[in-house]
Amino acid sequence: MNQPASFSQRLLALLAWMDRVRYLKFGVVGASGTVVNLAVLHFGHEVLFAQLEADYNKPYFSLVLAIAVATVNNFTWNRLWTWSDRVQQLEADEMPRVSLRTLGMEFSQYVTASAFGSGLQYVLTLLLSGSMDYRLANIVAILAASVSNFLANDRWTFRRKHRR
User: Fold this and answer.
1) Position 73 in a domain
2) Which of 81, 148, 85 is nearest to 113 (CA)?
């Protein structure tokens, strides 16, 4: 008789399967970015910029800070995990060590590729926060922007480099 797989075996199998599915990895990174975004948004709106934003009753400054911090978080984890195979290939083909210039160029491309999604997130959050809690509005906006962010970064920032 076959013994049922242990929890750890099933968890390892699930992680191995997820590792092969790039969009799921992107989703996990995005989920971590959402947590970072919401934490910074809440802290900024309720504490850091509370005096400034009280007059507007909308999280203008907090939202900019939250998007910036979440973008750095997401770039880091997408580079290290989601597209690590492509990053490793590039580094093997072009240079043995990551330079600050290369990292800066990748980050610039990531930010540019994500700019549309960030803009969409910003506008949707502000529009929706008039009719719902700003945190819920932000989650809805993040979900709407995630597809464009994935496609732009998959096709441009971390595109597969063809060997010559």
Assistant:
1) yes
2) 148
Q: Which residues of the chain have pLDDT under 50?
A: 164
The parent domain of residue 107 ranges over 21-157
Residue 153 belongs to a domain? yes
**Residue 84 in tokens:** 């690590």
Q: What is the pLDDT of residue 72?
A: 95
Angle 22-43/7-20 helices, nearest 10 degrees?
Answer: 100
User: Is 6 a domain residue?
Assistant: no
The residue type at 121: Q
Distance (Å, rounded) from C-alpha 35 to C-alpha 30? 9
Predicted TM-score (pTM) of the model is: 0.71
Domains held by the chain: number: 1
- φ/ψ region of 98 (left if φ > 0, alpha if ψ in -120 to 50, else beta) reads beta
**Residue 121 contacts residue 89 (beta carbons within 8 Å):** no
Are the C-beta atoms of residues 36 and 73 closer than 8 Å to each other?
A: yes
Q: Which of 81, 96, 86 is nearest to 157 (CA)?
A: 86
Q: Is residue 56 part of a domain?
A: yes
